[in-house]
Specification:
The protein is mainly β. Helix content is about 10%, strand content about 30%. It has eight helices and 33 strands. It is globular. Bound molecules: MU-OXO-diiron and calcium ion (2 copies). The site of one calcium ion has 9 residues, from loops.
């Protein structure tokens, strides 16, 4: 009826305005609190957080830095208890350590502390009273830190590949640690998938002076290795901007010592939050790239599809489809079966073909009024066989970008989150930006990436009959930016009704199927934040800003809980910016003084419907 229609389309909150405040801002009628912050105790025996006395041992038991992907595992039969999973993507040493003068002069203790601040956390949480607010529980039985030092296992077809063998792991089966875990996914069998993204800068490589600039010098490596390094941009010479210098604390990160170690990062990792002793698994069947996240959907015939973006300019979107079928109903045997589903299956990369020969100039849409067309999933590995000429299965899985280059996939504007909407069945992918599109020597615009020098990014909506389908239709849902800019598009909505948005990154859906977006790197000069838009009905595309995060922060991991009563978001790198330091940070959020990356819960305080946005 009318009420339901209003609910589905009607996000009733008053949008938060554009601002540069050093706090979290939520709509009237909502409140927020910090659920867990960098340094908070996680594992049993964690010491009290003392920024002046950090150590790798303390950090390995405390909540890590730069929280990104967030998900919640409800306790069966108890809606007031849950396990929170959070990724810790990277570290801002200039904000973490007093007197930091750069990676080249870091102490081994600082580097090891940073290594312990990476990875992820499992934290038991509980509801506060009967509200949508959550807090950390006292019990720590389930709590766990995963770090860059946690023992892991390779599973899937490339496990044991010669490309994965090192002097410390001669069989290529036991990688150590995960790094730069960005977004992720929550499987139907209640495990987390977490994507290793920008793993490349952690490795030290010799440098070569090229016109006054230090660039990686791969000339001492065999040509096939060097080609792979170049394709992924692996290794940073000492003294360059992104060099992290971990080799000074751990020889694995010295490429001249362990030339295969870079192949052991860039994977999707599966972690079972319900077993604190379980070994995280790096899933080689899903391929290796700068994985943003990995989200699942069940096909009509019961297989599991996984959607994945590779976040770098001109990279690709991927889909994996399992060979085996999901077994519902829980139970230990079903769970074991399901946990192995992502070890065998087919891997595809997407091609997006437009249907308008003349693209228009984005303010002036193509003749058919849409940036749209057909697409297909181009096979890389099918039935255990490589479909890429000249590459074996393990080569396709370890050097997936090279494989995708060879089959004519579409180079996208930095693919971030990609996820199927459980209500309308469409798949949404955020392309966060690409300021090199159409610049000299770089690919020009195409209908799926139509803006030259794409500063603000866009969102594509994919219509697949089924997650198992190999063909689809697609259209651009959002061309982000200031709605006053004619080169923006909000799914055809009246632009006087929408909030400005820039650089969509993570995405999720509420129980009504509304699309929620989080942003990173707002190029409109204001703080990042979280937004929502209906995807159907009269308000389709009416995007409204739900919250803003503090100065220098990106907004990550938006999640609306299954009961609709809580929004969770990760405030990543508050205070990050030029000249911002421990002694003089640009942000002092959330407690005054040292900025602390934190996960917050947001809930509704106004009388009436307690659900977020309703
Ligand atoms: Fe770590 Fe693509 O954002
Ligand atoms: Ca078109
Ligand atoms: Ca991201």
């Amino acid at each position: 009826g009318a009420a339901a229609a209003t609910r589905a389309g009607g996000l009733t909150f008053s949008p938060v305005g554009v601002n540069t405040l050093d706090t979290l801002v939520v709509p009237n009628g909502y409140d927020w609190s910090v659920l867990v912050a960098w340094g908070d105790p996680v594992e049993e025996g964690a010491p009290h957080f003392d920024p002046e006395r950090q150590s790798p041992q303390a950090q390995a038991k405390q909540f890590g830095y730069n929280c990104d992907y967030v998900t919640v595992f409800a306790f069966p039969g108890d809606p007031d208890r849950a396990l929170l999973w959070v990724n810790h993507e990277y570290t801002n040493e200039e904000l973490m350590f007093p007197g930091w003068e750069g990676a080249a002069s870091a102490t081994v203790r600082q580097i090891r502390t940073s290594m312990a601040a990476h990875g992820g956390s499992v934290v038991e949480i509980e509801r506060v009273g009967r509200t949508g607010e959550w807090r950390r529980a006292k019990g720590r039985r389930w709590n766990r830190r995963i770090t860059a030092m946690t023992p892991m296992a390779f599973t899937g077809p490339a496990a044991g590949s010669p490309l994965l063998r090192t002097s410390e792991d001669r069989r290529g089966l036991h990688p150590v640690g995960m790094i730069n875990n960005c977004a992720g996914g929550h499987t139907p069998w209640e495990t987390v998938l977490t994507g290793e993204e920008n793993f490349n800068g952690y490795f030290t490589v010799p440098g070569l002076d090229q016109d006054g600039e230090l660039v990686p010098d791969y000339s001492s490596f065999p040509p096939d290795l060097a080609e792979g390094y170049a394709r992924y941009g692996v290794g940073a010479p000492t003294g360059t901007e992104f060099a992290r210098e971990w080799a000074r604390a751990d020889r694995r990160f010295d490429m001249t010592q362990e030339p295969n170690e870079p192949h052991r990062f860039g994977w999707v990792v599966q972690i079972d939050p319900w077993d604190p002793t379980s070994t995280p698994r790096k899933l080689t069947a899903l391929g290796r790239c700068k994985h943003e996240g990995a989200t699942t959907a069940i096909t009509r015939d019961g297989r599991v599809a996984v959607y994945m973006g590779d976040d770098e300019r001109f990279e690709y979107t991927y889909k994996f489809i399992s060979k085996g079928r999901f077994r519902a109903g829980g139970g230990a045997a079903a769970r074991r079966h399901n946990m192995a589903l992502l070890d065998e299956g087919d891997l595809y990369v997407a091609r997006y073909d437009g249907d308008s020969p003349d693209l228009g100039d984005a303010g002036d849409l193509p003749e058919d009024g849409l940036y749209d067309g057909r697409g297909r999933w181009v096979p890389l590995v099918v039935d255990g066989e490589s479909r890429v000429p000249g590459m074996s299965v393990d080569e396709v899985l370890v050097l997936t970008r090279t494989a995708a280059d060879r089959v004519g996939a579409t180079r996208m504007d930095r693919p971030e989150d990609m996820e199927r909407n459980p209500v309308n069945g469409k798949v949404y992918v955020n392309l966060t930006n690409n300021t090199q599109r159409g610049t000299e020597g770089r690919p020009g615009p195409d209908e799926a990436n139509p803006r030259p020098v794409n500063r603000h990014g866009h969102t594509i909506e994919i219509t697949e009959r089924d997650p198992g389908a190999l063909g689809f239709r697609w259209q651009i849902f959002l061309l982000a930016g200031d709605p006053a800019d004619p080169q923006t598009y909000f799914a055809g909505a009246d632009k006087s009704r929408v909030s400005p948005i820039s650089c969509p990154d993570n995405l999720t859906f509420d129980p009504a199927g509304n699309l929620w977006l989080a942003t990173d790197g707002n190029a409109l000069g204001a703080n990042d934040g979280m937004f929502a838009a209906p995807v159907s009905g009269p308000d389709r595309g009416v995007l409204k800003q739900f919250l803003t995060v503090p100065v220098g922060a990106e907004c990550c991991g938006p999640l609306i809980t299954a009961d609709g009563r809580t929004a969770l978001c990760a405030v990543q790198h508050p205070g990050e910016g030029d000249g911002s330091t421990y002694a003089s940070p640009m942000s002092t959020w959330p407690y005054g003084g040292l900025p602390r990356p934190s996960v917050v819960s947001v809930w509704r305080t106004a009388p009436g419907d307690p659900r977020i946005g309703a």
